Amino acid sequence: MSAGCPVSGRFDSPPTPLGPDSLTWKLFGDWRGLLQGPWAGSMQNMHPQLGAAVRDHSIFFAERIPRLFRSLYPIGGVVFDGDRAPATGAEVRDYHLSIKGVDDQGRRYSALNPDVFYWAHATFFMGTIRTAEHFGAGLTEADKRQLFDEHVNWYAMYGMSMRPVPASWEEFERYWDRMCREVLENTWAAREVLDLSSMPKPPTAQWIPDWLWSFSLRVLEPVVVWVTVGLYDEPVRQLMGYSWSTRDERLHTLFGRAVNAAFQCLPRRRRMHPRARAGWDRAE
């Protein structure tokens, strides 16, 4: 991290939080984002340092659903907390202070390595784009450029070094392609995200009989994997050992359209994560 962005929540100058006029506000707090959750989680964990950190330090695989929602709430706050967003971002960043170690190939890792931290953020940004493109109304090139500019402001909320952040949307596209082709690895943590066979019941589902829970996971897992593989870039599919046909692509498109059509039937407030609803309530 740079001297101007120490791990204390202080900044050279206060970053500008995103607000209701941003496209990120309109898209990021959407519950359809859960459909790309396994994509984002596995993409993050394909980074060798991040995958090692999750393997060695995270309790995610022991309590997947509660851990997912505990993470969503503060991360959503970095977008929707208005003037409090820099403080929320500093809290999220500082959760990672002690996450460091050595992976099984002898490589040192730290969750606060700027390149690692930015990669995680890049998946949130690209996850917003993938959700809108695959399960929403789509995006124009102008929309993507706007979202890119906004993701820079969003990242500034964490008080991390801005060194890894690409300077433009075109540069980001090159960064993303290089990461997919040259940096990401087929890690245990990435594979484990898509293995639902041993996923424990969340507290709200303890009433479900064990046999029914196991059966449900066996039915759900291939669907989750298929939806996720449809969101991967082709080099990532190859890295993880998945194939994807023209028929898969056509069915995935139809699935996304059905999701979007069904989602339009929900009241606006029901479409949003609670942190997003709270942000819109304050703004309106």
Portion in helices = 55-70%
The first-to-last residue Cα distance is 36 Å
| Inertia-based shape | globular
How much is the average pLDDT?
Answer: 91
What's the helix and strand layout?
Layout: H1 23-28, H2 37-46, H3 48-57, H4 64-80, H5 85-94, E1 100-102, E2 108-110, H6 114-135, H7 141-156, H8 169-183, H9 188-193, H10 210-231, H11 234-240, H12 246-263, H13 274-283
Antiparallel strand pairs: 1-2
Task: Walk me through the structure.
The chain is an all-alpha fold and 284 residues long. The protein has one domain. It has 13 helices and two strands, in the order H-H-H-H-H-E-E-H-H-H-H-H-H-H-H. The chain has helices spanning 23-28, 37-46, 48-57, 64-80, 85-94, 114-135, 141-156, 169-183, 188-193, 210-231, 234-240, 246-263, 274-283, and strands at 100-102, 108-110. Strands 1-2 form a two-stranded antiparallel sheet. It is globular. The two termini are 36 Å apart.
Short structural description:
By secondary structure, this protein is mostly helical. It is built from 13 helices and two strands; from the N terminus they run αααααββαααααααα.
Distinctive features:
two-stranded antiparallel ribbon; disordered N terminus; 13 helices
